[in-house]
Design goal:
heterotrimer; A mainly alpha; B mainly alpha; C alpha+beta; A: mainly alpha; two-stranded antiparallel ribbon; two-stranded antiparallel sheet; 18 helices; 8 strands; 57% helix; 6% strand; B: mainly alpha; Cytochrome Bc1 Complex, Chain D, domain 2; 2 domains; 12 helices; 1% strand
Chain lengths: 562, 269, 364
């Protein structure tokens, strides 16, 4: 035995004697992970989080979470002699007087941006592929909580340096909190320790940012990952992939190597960004004071949608019986986030109720195969996007030479119109893509081989889809999980869930939700599938000469092979 | 076959062509969007000859809109009392003479030479007085307190021009321009005369000393290097967010595609 | 290396792969070495060990090339890490230029160090590990009925043994005892801050307090602030460094041409007019704290006489009592009563006659 083997043997035995790990760790090592690039989006978020923890710990060694005013005499001479809080001064110190400090600060900030961006991308992937379905609803809800907490964690984090830009954000937070009916003023005074800005907000945000929220994150992320391990990851449709298996490469050594490499890629990409792209240059903003402000003040991008909703709201307010209800602040601050989060949280359960589908789903859908779901998702993305763009409207107005008020006026209408348009366009695109798949199914894949017929015509040969391609198209006929009305009893009574007004609503929603191009085809890739039920909707249309389609189905099919 | 033809079918060829196209377009665009010339003005000496010459230029170039006596018309304001500083500012930045009326006159390459500008300025000054063109000594930033300038800039200027002088949007299609090319004289004149939508900060509201501090801050922060890398326009979180999505996340997606891509050449069973 | 991607058949490819576009990027690869990954075999089953993962690569020469590439990448990473340490030790900071150099050096070396490992590791996995595709069976997540039944029994037996279900007095008093624990955090946090009281209704402005120009903090004579179109930020004398006071008391003064302001009885809800007794020599003073969510409403367009708040673009009409023209602000900016003291400096005549800043429930 070599030295290494002896060492590993010894260590392994020592641990196993105490922890009984041989079987469990072996199972863990043999766990199969399916491979698709969209499955790595969650990892981007995970590794960004770890990098946030690492760089954040470094920063806590140097940052002073105190609002005590001092006079600055550090290395950034443009601010020499200026009064500022210790928090701001210590951030300047980290940037200019600690070696590697600026790099760590920038990596921390870029990692936070990437963290939220990756969560968004990951969330959309889960939604569009239907990976939130049973048994993963709880994981979906955990993910939503993580997303919301990430927004606040970022907000509190970039507010810690107490600079002019983030301080303006805190002022807006105070204004929003004030508008809450009945308890608003109390909440504000308790949070800020008195009237704004007070002396307590930065230390309080600090402890929430470095202790409370990270603790919750670690717990929830652990739960999120554990559930994913326990239930096994979903997989894309493909040959040999069924709802009762997982196909891929084992954890050890393949997945470990790939995920480790990905971690270093993320760290490296963040390091490049922090070397060549400056972020949050607080020395240019200056220390916060409540009398100053800069044009183009925005929060970090993930809070941009709240900023946009605040900007586009008309100034509705109620002054009744000596009290004020500030709808102009309440609605934009709480409604968009409320709609998106509540809608997202309820969606898996709504879908289950409408379709009656209570099976386990371990093979995900291609987005095109669930056109209504994809369209609703895109409508939500568009809703979010309009708010987002409006949040940057003064920068857009300035740089694209559009009148400022016009951007807000457009946004006020677009917020209602654009999601509807997005829904419709997305749905048509999905249905179109499904028809394209159906076309492939029936007519085969083009081979690029041109043949001349005796009549002088040129046609392109096609070959039928092979097994892998067929599986990837995911065209198995979908057994409708809820046959509304189909199980009507002999006396014509619909099943319990389908009765009455609610039942009719459910039936209507079912029809819309499951609208899709039927993929059953009588063809076999040789173009013989034309007829009444060819899925095109029009009986017996004239075939386009794109395959070896002999209508008589004769054997002159050269479609297979090179 | 030639080297290019042989390489044409490689997968990387497509990317190379796109990259070349992007570089070409970028280079062409960069050359054609030049910034306007900025004026380095010296204090003119006003003589009656110069005033006469200025009047002549005025009547040819400006009187159509501003009136023969600079008294103003329906389309342009009176220039009596605006002072030489206002004229120098507007003409040096190319905003005047204006070819078309707009919500706000944009910066442009100057249309009158320095000598012509001074002549018109002298003429307007002779009509009703007003702030004169500042002398080089008045706009000199040596010994100026940059920290004070930063405080004043944040208090009075940043809300329109942005913390770094990158400019900002105003209402009704107007905007506060970026200060990237503003010379000390132009900055002084702008504060003094309050061109178009900009408020007037006369010398008793912001003293000449304070004005010099502000100028020092603007000119120095322009040249301050960005220790964290490229500045992304110093616009703030909007460009940072775009970079996070289009740069970082997109790059990570490409990496993810590479890691999980299948092998084209399959291994033996 | 021509790897993934649908680029179409290449003429020198082996002909066993079907022609035509094969797949889109990222869809799962076809099954290669299919092994059914069954249950982990119990040790001592007596069967000869069956290898689950292949050990050899099909193309040793190719593997050797890949190995050399990966090794050189790892060495590059090592060198970059050494470079990082050298840059840290060798490059000082303490100025903007030095920080730029240090950041560049540290960042570049760190990036190369990480990316080289990353690229090397990916090449290792893709070209030095034999491609495998294994299948693992899923078990239904639902426990089998026997297990569920057993759980139910254990649970019920325990509940019975604890007497929890049988003795309602115990149960109810336990719940009653633990409820205050939930209220404890709420109680303990009461001293986070003072009660708001009437604090939000007032600022620090008092009769006779001078207006100071913010920044230089000097008092202002109307004769100095004489150019129509001028606008400046003002703060109360004695509070120029007090951020808590400034957060409510900061104001702006604007100088108008005669006849531009519309004088009259100013309406607190709609604005509409400027109260003339509160102005001095066509100079008016408004609160700078926007009535939307409290940003400084600081932009001033002297041609249109509009005050614009940069946060959410609330626009106020300065000659008409700062009434709201556009945007989400519900109320005009409050006007500060202004006068002149014995030495001719601008002073406040009293506090604002209404609360400044954002709306709150008790404002009314």
């Amino acid at each position: 035995m070599s030295m290494t083997t002896k060492l590993l043997d010894g260590t392994g035995s020592w641990l196993d004697d105490r922890f009984h790990g041989a079987k469990g760790i072996r199972t863990f090592f043999r766990k199969i992970f399916p491979d698709h690039w969209t499955f790595l989006l969650g990892e981007i978020a995970l590794y960004s989080f770890i990098i946030l923890l690492l760089t954040g710990t470094f920063l806590t060694f140097f940052f002073q979470p105190s609002m005590t005013e001092i006079v600055y005499h550090g290395s950034y001479t443009h601010l020499d002699g200026v009064r500022m809080s210790e928090a701001y001064a210590s951030t300047l110190n980290i940037s200019f007087d600690v070696r590697g400090g600026l790099l760590m600060r920038q990596i921390h900030h870029w990692a936070a941006d990437l963290f939220v961006a990756a969560i968004l991308a990951h969330m959309l992937r889960i939604f569009f592929t239907g990976a939130y379905r049973k048994p993963r609803e709880v994981n979906w809800l955990i993910g939503l909580v993580l997303f919301t907490l990430a927004l606040f964690e970022g907000l509190f984090g970039y507010s810690l340096p107490d600079d002019l830009l983030s301080g303006t954000g805190l002022r807006i937070t105070e204004g929003v909190l004030l508008s809450v009916p009945v308890v608003g003023t109390y909440l504000t005074f308790f949070l800020f320790g008195g009237p704004y800005p007070g002396n307590d907000i930065i230390p309080r945000l600090y402890i929430i940012h470095v202790l409370l929220l990270p603790g919750v994150f670690v717990a929830l992320i652990t739960a999120h990952l554990f559930i994913m391990f326990w239930q096994k990851h979903t997989q894309m449709p493909g040959k040999g992939r069924t709802n009762t298996n997982v196909v891929g490469a084992p954890m050890y050594p393949y997945f470990m190597a790939k995920t480790g490499a990905f971690f270093f890629f993320i760290f490296g990409a963040l390091a490049i960004a922090s070397t060549f792209a400056q972020v949050n240059p607080i020395w240019l903003y200056g220390p916060y004071n409540p009398s100053g402000i800069s044009a183009g003040s925005q929060p970090d991008f993930y809070m941009g949608f709240l900023e946009g909703s605040l900007r586009m709201m008309p100034n509705w307010t109620w002054d009744i019986w000596g009290h004020t209800v500030a709808w102009n602040v309440l609605i934009p601050a709480f409604l968009p986030l409320g709609i998106i989060m509540t809608g997202a949280a309820l969606w898996p359960f709504l879908e289950q109720w409408v379709t009656g589908d209570r099976r386990e789903h371990h093979v995900v859908d291609r987005p095109r195969n669930a056109p209504t779901r994809t369209a609703i998702g895109m409508a939500a993305v568009t809703f979010y996007g309009v708010l987002w763009l409006e949040g940057a409207n003064d920068v857009i107005a300035d740089h694209l030479y559009i009148s400022l008020y016009l951007t807000t006026e457009i946004a006020r209408y677009a917020i209602f119109i654009a999601p509807v348009v997005a829904y419709w366009v997305t749905k048509r695109i999905c249905l179109g893509l499904q028809r394209k798949d159906l076309h492939l199914l029936e007519h085969g894949v083009e081979t690029g081989i041109i043949r001349q017929l005796p009549t002088g015509e040129f046609i392109e040969e096609t070959r039928p889809l092979d097994d892998e391609e067929l599986a990837a198209l995911d065209v198995k006929p979908r057994a409708p999980s809820l046959p509304p009305g189909a199980t009507v009893s002999a006396a014509g009574v619909p099943p319990p869930g389908m009765r009455g007004g609610l039942g009719r609503v459910r039936e209507g929603m079912y029809k819309v939700l499951t609208e899709s191009v039927p993929m059953e085809t009588h063809g076999n890739g040789y173009g013989n599938g034309h007829g009444e039920a060819d899925g095109h909707g029009e009986p017996g249309h004239a075939p386009v000469p794109s395959g070896s389609e002999q209508d008589d189905g004769s054997g002159d099919d050269q479609g297979a092979g090179a | 076959m030639s080297w290019i033809t042989a390489k044409r079918r490689r997968p990387v060829a497509g990317y190379a062509v796109v990259l070349l196209g992007l570089i070409l377009v970028g280079a062409i665009y960069a050359t054609i969007t030049g910034s306007g010339e900025s004026a380095a003005s010296t204090t003119p000496t006003t003589s009656s000859a110069e005033i006469a010459k200025g009047q002549q230029i005025f009547q040819q170039t400006c009187a159509t809109c501003h009136g023969l006596e600079a008294q103003g018309t329906a389309v342009a304001p009176s220039l009596i009392g605006v002072g030489a500083a206002a004229v120098d500012f507007q003409v040096s930045t190319g905003r005047m003479p204006a070819k078309a009326l707009d919500a706000e006159m944009p910066q442009a390459p100057r249309k009158l030479t320095v000598a012509q500008t001074h002549a018109v300025a002298a003429y307007i000054q002779s009509l009703g007085g007003g702030p004169p063109i500042p002398t080089p000594a008045e706009v000199s930033t040596s010994g100026a307190d940059v920290a004070l300038g930063q405080e004043l800039f944040t208090a009075d200027c940043a809300q329109c021009h942005n913390f770094d002088g990158a400019g900002g949007a105003l209402t009704e299609g107007k905007y506060a321009p970026a200060l990237t090319n503003a010379t000390p004289t132009l900055i002084y004149e702008a504060m003094l005369t309050g061109p178009e939508a900009m408020p007037v900060f006369n010398d008793t509201t912001i003293t000449p000393n304070e004005k010099r501090a502000i100028i020092a801050y603007v000119t120095e922060s322009r040249t301050t290097p960005n220790p964290g890398g490229f500045s992304l326009g110093r616009v703030g979180p909007v460009t940072e967010g775009l970079f996070a999505f289009l740069g970082l996340l997109f790059f990570m997606v490409l990496v993810a595609m590479w890691i999980t891509a299948k092998h084209r050449k399959t291994t033996d069973e | 290396m021509s790897d993934a991607g649908a680029h179409g058949a290449q003429p020198d490819e082996p002909t066993d792969a079907p022609a035509g576009p094969h797949r889109v990027i990222g869809t799962p690869p076809p099954a290669q070495a299919r092994t059914l990954l069954g249950e982990a075999e119990e040790p001592g089953a007596g069967a000869p060990a069956r290898r689950e993962l292949p050990a050899e690569l099909p193309d040793p020469a190719r593997a050797k090339r890949a190995e050399r590439l990966v090794a050189s990448l790892f060495i590059l990473s090592l060198l970059a890490s050494i470079g990082f340490i050298a840059a840290y030790v060798g490059l000082e900071v303490h100025s903007v230029d030095a920080t730029l150099r240090s950041n560049l050096a540290l960042g570049t070396s760190m990036s190369v160090a990480f990316l080289a490992i990353a690229v090397g590791a990916v090449i290792w996995v893709r070209h030095l590990m034999p491609t495998v595709e294994l299948t693992e069976e899923r078990h239904p997540l639902r426990s089998d009925p026997a297990a569920r039944e057993a759980f139910k029994e254990t649970f019920e037996e325990g509940a019975d043994a604890s007497q929890f279900t049988k003795r309602p007095l115990l149960r109810r008093t336990l719940i009653a005892a633990t409820l205050p624990l939930a209220a404890a955090p709420i109680v303990l946090l009461r001293d986070l801050g003072p009660l708001p009281g009437t604090t939000l209704r007032h600022t620090v402005w008092r009769k006779g307090m001078r207006l100071l120009s913010y920044g230089p903090n000097t008092p202002i004579r109307p004769g100095d602030f004489s150019s129509p179109g001028g606008m400046i930020t003002v703060v109360p004398d004695g509070y120029q460094d007090n951020q808590d006071a400034l957060a409510a008391a900061t104001a702006i003064i604007i100088k108008f041409q005669p006849g531009v302001m519309v004088f009259g009885q100013r309406n607190q809800v709609r604005g509409g007019f400027v109260t003339p007794n509160w102005t001095v020599d066509n100079i008016v003073c408004y609160s700078k704290i926007c009535t939307h969510v409290g940003c400084p409403a600081a932009l001033y367009d002297q041609e249109l006489h509009h005050i614009l708040c940069p946060c959410h673009q609330s626009t106020f009409d300065a000659p008409r009592g700062a009434q709201v023209l556009f945007g989400p602000a519900p109320r005009p900016l409050p006007q500060l009563p202004m006068g002149v003291d014995a030495e001719g400096y601008l002073i406040a005549l009293s506090d604002f006659h209404e609360p400044v800043g954002p709306s709150f429930f008790e404002r009314g």
